[in-house]
Every structure is written in structure tokens, then in C-alpha cells.
Design brief:
By secondary structure, the protein is of the alpha+beta class. It has helices at residues 29-45, 52-78, 117-122, 145-158, 162-172; strands at residues 17-21, 81-85, 88-93, 99-104, 110-114, 124-130, 137-143. Helices cover 41% and strands 22% of the residues. Strand 6 (124-130) and strand 7 (137-143) form a beta hairpin. The chain is elongated and about 80 Å long.
């Protein structure tokens, strides 16, 4: 067999990270306002009381409010991220208990974007990925949602393999057998 007739299969292209996303940072607006107000109020009231235990209570209350209403939302926001590569989408969520989900572009899916009024104002949106399973995957409040949708469409088209394309055509084709109601 000559080398012209046989060529070794080409190695698959390396997986490249296209984008790393997390929900829009405006989710931290109100927690940051609460933090600023808490620091201001704690600073103002510390030392105003005659008893030491009252001043300590003001400091403890300020720390509890800051941890509860700023630190926990910050950890929740930091704990959710989405990574889009040339082969798949990786969704990670959670801080103490991590959950990871992967969607392969070659499987094929539908991508829709939904925006409410505030999301339109900031250019973000919810990217809904319907994989044909029971529950669609939603990338919540991602910045530049339209760009993410376009990138996902392009990546899915590039990684479409013949088997997945045939499977999608078979799903869209009506079944040959029909049932007639009332006949025996």
C-alpha cells in the first residue's frame, strides 16, 4: 500500500477556551450598598454608648450584617461560572458543594435568549440551552447574551459530526406508523 492511498487520521484539534462567564456583576449592587451602609453605621455608632458591651454589640452586629448580606451573596456570585470551549460548555455552581455539568457541542441543541427590561438596559440576558432532555440548561443573566448565543451556534455548527446530524434529522422526521383511534 502506498503512502498516497492511506493517510493517518488527523489528530483532533486541541480544546480551546472561548469564553469564561459568570452572571452579570450588577447582582452585587444591593449587597455592596448594604455593606457601605453597614460600615458607615457601625463606624458612626461605635464608641457612642457608655457601656463597653453595647459598643461591642454594635461591632458584632455590623460584622454579622456584613457577612450575611454581603459576603454570602459574593460567595454565591463567585461560585457560579460558565466556561465555553471549542468542544463543550462547562457549568459550575456552588461554593462549598460544587456541581459541574457539561454539554457537548457535537450533541446539538437549541439556544434562545430571554431578556427582561433591566437585562436589556445592561446588555445581559438568560441564555436557554435546550438539549432535548427534560430540563433545559439556563445560563442566568450572562453579559452580552446575544454574542454568547451567536458563539454557541457557530461552535455547534463547527463540531457537528455526521452521526449527530443524522440523529437530528431522524428526530425531526415524522414516524411512519400512525395510530387510528377507534379502529380494531
Amino acid at each position: 500500500m502506498s503512502s498516497e492511498q492511506y493517510s493517518a487520521p488527523s489528530a483532533p484539534a486541541p480544546e480551546v477556551v472561548v469564553a469564561r462567564l459568570r452572571p452579570h456583576a450588577r447582582a452585587m449592587f444591593w449587597p455592596s450598598i448594604v455593606l457601605i451602609a453597614t460600615v458607615g453605621a457601625t463606624t458612626y455608632f461605635t464608641g457612642k454608648f457608655a457601656e463597653d458591651w453595647q459598643n461591642i454589640a454594635v461591632l458584632v452586629a455590623g460584622v454579622l450584617v456584613a457577612v450575611t448580606l454581603w459576603m454570602l451573596p459574593l460567595l454565591a456570585w463567585l461560585g457560579r461560572n460558565y466556561t465555553i470551549t471549542t468542544r463543550r460548555i462547562v457549568l459550575r455552581s456552588g461554593f462549598f458543594v460544587r456541581e459541574r455539568q457539561e454539554l457537548l457541542h457535537s450533541r446539538g441543541y437549541d439556544v434562545t435568549v430571554r431578556k427582561n427590561g433591566l437585562q436589556v438596559l445592561f446588555g445581559s440576558g438568560n441564555v436557554r440551552i435546550n438539549t432535548g432532555l427534560e430540563n433545559p440548561v439556563v445560563l442566568k443573566d450572562v453579559p452580552s447574551a446575544d454574542l454568547v448565543q451567536a458563539a454557541l451556534h457557530d461552535l455547534m455548527e463547527r463540531s457537528q459530526n455526521p452521526i449527530a446530524a443524522r440523529r437530528q434529522q431522524e428526530r425531526s422526521r415524522p414516524h411512519d406508523q400512525t395510530a387510528v383511534w377507534g379502529s380494531s
